[in-house]
Amino acid sequence: MSLAYFDIKQNNVVVPNPEFQIDHTVPQFLIFDLTNDGIELEFAGLLTPSLSFIGSITSMHARNSFGRRPRAIADRAAGLLATYGFREGVPEGLSRMALR
Questions:
Q1: pTM score, two decimals?
Q2: 85-95 per-position pLDDT tens digit
Q3: What's the order of all strands across the beta sheet hosting 2-16?
Q4: Torsion, CA 19, CA 21, CA 27, CA 28, rounded to 10
Q5: How far is CA 99 from CA 6, 93, 94, 95, 96, in A?
Q6: CA–CA dist 26, 46 (Å, integer)
Q7: What residues have CB less than 8 Å from 9, skipping those under 6 apart?
Q8: pLDDT of 96
Q9: How far apart (Å, rounded) are the C-alpha atoms in residues 76 and 89?
Q10: pLDDT tens per residue, range 47-71
């Protein structure tokens, strides 16, 4: 398990201008200064010899120079991946067969 704090500042970041899709007289790209700070928790482990997992939870505050959240960047995100390996029975060995 790990816990991280981040505080990132970027200058002169080029981003697509969404208004360009409907009005070609506006600039196609915009230049912003971006800031992003937050925390992230990552974890991985085994619950049983057959069941393993990995995941993360992030809470951040990404903003442009006008104080607005950039498009398609969420303030909170989470993900989890769990895998189960069958050790006996009919499904045993299917993962090895898929790799051939």
A1: 0.67
A2: 777 766 666 65
A3: 2-16, 29-46, 51-63, 76-84
A4: 120
A5: 38, 10, 9, 7, 5
A6: 53
A7: 33, 34, 35, 36
A8: 58
A9: 41
A10: 888 899 999 999 999 998 889 898 7
